Structure prediction request, 280 residues.
Amino acid sequence: MFSKLFPRNKIKPDQAGFVRRGLAFAIDGIIISILSGLVYSGYAELKARVQHQPSPASRMIEALNKGEDVSVRAEGGIKVAPDQKTTLLDLLKGRIPDEEYQKATAMTDEEILNKYPKELAAATAEKAGEDIKARQQERNDAYNIIKEYIITLLYFVLFFRYGGRTPGKRLFGLRVIDLEGKQQLGWYQCFERAHGYVCSGLFASLGFWQVLWDRQGLSMHDRIATTTVIRLPEKPKEKKLKVKESVKKEAKGKVKKEIEEKIEEEQKSQAEDTKEADSK
Prediction:
């Protein structure tokens, strides 16, 4: 049923399948995220030093020494969670008179919650709205710029240019090749393929799924850059080792047979000798 709906059309006989390509791309995505996190951490440290502010690492160490909760996010870096009373006082600030606020600073968490439930509810709702707006603006922050416009482009362009194999594709024995038979992909062609991933990711990643029904088994970024992905044959060394192993097995089998035949001949000769001795 599936094969009828999505026949495996190929422009090359050794063209890689959808699953293997998808797994390789997922591995590359993980590597890019790790590299982006490392680069962003270095950027945040450098920025803090230039602005003469405490770096994220020093803030984390200070928070751990105080016994506070620390969370690490790829996009936001290291954040220290304030205690509940501080959070409640921040919510009440500006919503109650200054005298009431001073009294609240001397209260416990439970007393603040019981005395100002309406004010806290309104402040929480307003803060939730601000958080939603902040999340929408996170796409333009330094992490996303580093990840999407620097690390991702450099990663794919350089690996496609030199060897045509990213770490993910190397792990699954794949390689990006030119459809016109060029030995090496050009710089602009590599950039086209890397940029083509963005186009393939639009509309529920239809450009990636296109491999299943395309007449030549090509994705959108394949067609943009006139490339495709092939599955490389086994390495000669592996083949030689397999041949050697098979030869050894055959040799061992022959030796075993020869030994068994000799043993049978000796047993027959012994049996014949015993018969002759009995007849005498």
Residues 74-81 have pLDDT under 50 and may be disordered.
